């Protein structure tokens, strides 16, 4: 049917194009060309109609959503801001990486310089004959501390530090504080603490009861003494109740030997008590008579709170309180000839026998004295009774 319509239209066009020409039969080739031309025209018309329809739909969509453009603009801005943040973070990471690489390179260069310097120093030392001889043979001379500078002038020792082991001026004292290398006495600074000792400028109403303070001290004393006896025999314990900062709460402990004091120093240093670290050191105090204030127990100390001698608590039941009258034993080298002589001369059997004989002699002397006194008292009583008896006999 379409072919018939096309043929009729072609014939009509041919008639219109050549009205004056006589009617002739159309060539088949020309007919096919016209047919293709009409097909292309129809296709173009259809495509144009679809395009116009799509344009109309788009125009209608834009008219229906006027805020879509703004939303798209906002989305583009948000994506741009995110991109800027990522770019800044990337730049920061790059800068940090570059700095780390630079520091690493500087460290490697420094290490290489140190290695080169040590190698060069070893080469120089190897060339010296004295250094090689020193390395080959062991050093027989004992080491010693470096000599003091020429401008150094020795000062007198501080008397308060020698007596009490503490000075109110501390490191700013004009005199020297010679610290003992080893001693039988240990100083535990500020180990004991109580509210009454910390009230330097308190009112009388804030003072703590003496009985309460003594009870607190006794609990502290037995707690600390049990731990101190783990290192050895404790001879003396003194706990300061001074209010001066350099003496407040100090605890002095004296052991029977320096070895036990050294063991206690190693055991106590680095530990904690009542939430505070323990500070333990050797103290030059050896005589308590010169360290303890004698007027404090009489309540007649004229210095009061400002006294630089030890105001100590009285130990409960006088435990570790009385000072031994015998002097402390002197240290001797275990391989000295004197120690060897004493070790050979003394034997357990002889010492035991000697102690038994001394005890028996002392007992015999005491018995003789007692018998002498008893005989004298009897003779006196008899002499008093004889005259009365004689008078009675005469009267009878």
Automatic annotation (TrEMBL):
GO MF annotations in UniProt: RNA binding; zinc ion binding
Polar residues bias: start-end ranges: 1-10
Biased amino acid composition, Basic residues: 332-396
Annotated ranges, domain C3H1-type: 152-180, 287-314
UniProt keyword list: Metal-binding, Repeat, RNA-binding, Zinc, Zinc-finger
SUPFAM superfamilies tied to this protein: CCCH zinc finger, RNA-binding domain, RBD
Domain called RRM: residue spans: 184-285
RNA-binding is among the record's keywords: yes
Positions of the UniProt region annotated as Disordered: 1-24, 321-396
GO cellular component: U2AF complex
GO biological process: mRNA splicing, via spliceosome
InterPro entries: Nucleotide-bd_a/b_plait_sf, RBD_domain_sf, RRM_dom, RRM_euk-type, U2AF_small, Znf_CCCH, Znf_CCCH_sf
The protein's name: U2 snrnp splicing factor small subunit
Organism from which the protein derives: Rhipicephalus zambeziensis
